[in-house]
From TrEMBL:
Molecular function GO labels: metalloendopeptidase activity
SUPFAM superfamilies cross-referenced by the UniProt entry: Duplicated hybrid motif
Region Disordered, residue ranges: 128-153, 231-252
Membrane-spanning ranges: none
Name by which UniProt lists this protein: M23ase beta-sheet core domain-containing protein
Signal peptide region: none
Source domain of life: Eukaryota
Gene3D superfamilies in alphabetical order: Glucose Permease (Domain IIA) (2.70.70.10)
Pfam families per record: Peptidase_M23
Polar residues bias locations: 135-153
Amino acid sequence: MEPYDPEDYDPDAEIPDIGLDPNERCVSVTNTGEVERVCYVTVFDVPCLGRDGKRLGMGQTADDDGNERGATTFIALCPPLTFVHLCTLDLPEAMTMAEVQIESDISDANPHPDPEDEHPLGLAFPLACRGGPSAPSTEDGNNNGDSDTTWQDDVSEPSYLCTQGEGGHLTHFLRGNYHAIDFRCKEGTPILAAGDGTVVEVQDSRRLTGVAVGNLYGWNSVMIELDAPPPSQSVAKDRPMEGNGFDASSASESAEGGPLFVEYVHIQYKSSVVKRGERVTRGQIICRSGSVGFSPEPHLHFSAFRSKDPLAPTVRVRFLRPPDESGEADKGGFIPRAGMKYNGLGALDE
């Protein structure tokens, strides 16, 4: 990084958000304003070098028609009045900087207005697990509306790795995703309704995948508005902040009820077995996991909101374990954190 001083430039000079230095072959982002900015930048098909001169790993991206390209994407928080140098391009001999294709999305950073906001409705774990309490079944092994398969046939995982949790530094640091939870899971893993409710949105017609910036605006998802909780599914306000490393004192008074919407993102193409306006029950299969949208690997991105407004901030929620052998309900719940494996009983190594 290096500072940007307006006095070094002509008052009428236009400073681009993305800078390409033809001599140094450097790609930079510029913040000439007074507010921190979040920058997503993708370089297509050209190897990128880090500050040590070593090649960075190149990912893949594909559009809805399956056309694949190499892609290296950078996510940077750019402070006010600052240049951030992202990489140096390792151009082929016959290629010029003018031929480099770059895609970007740059906007003012929009932090979460209340990171300790928590909803008291306890949720069911959102993925079916082999042998776990969240695996839905009936006598014939089929689930509501998903009569073509049985969960026993296609659920092989006893648990799922949380790859990014609350406040995650990769993408979970702004208002619309701060409390989101990512679970690594194979494509086609059954996804379950977190509670009784009504489907309010379904999008499963996209196929694009990978790390290109443009994929931020194309994804598949299901959103459900959950019913008000019965006492057995409410989280106690004096519960410990288990499994996430946060301080209980700052959140114990913030758990207020009201509407709650949960969203399942990156779902598989044409996998939804529910439609808008349909009632669902807790633990019912609603769709299958995938890797559609801005997605470096197959995973489920799960988040909750107090409103279905596209600009609504996320809200913290907890997953409840099933009642114990005595029938006593779980009142504390758990919040997955990155680096640990989870199923409906909580973290595997707790």
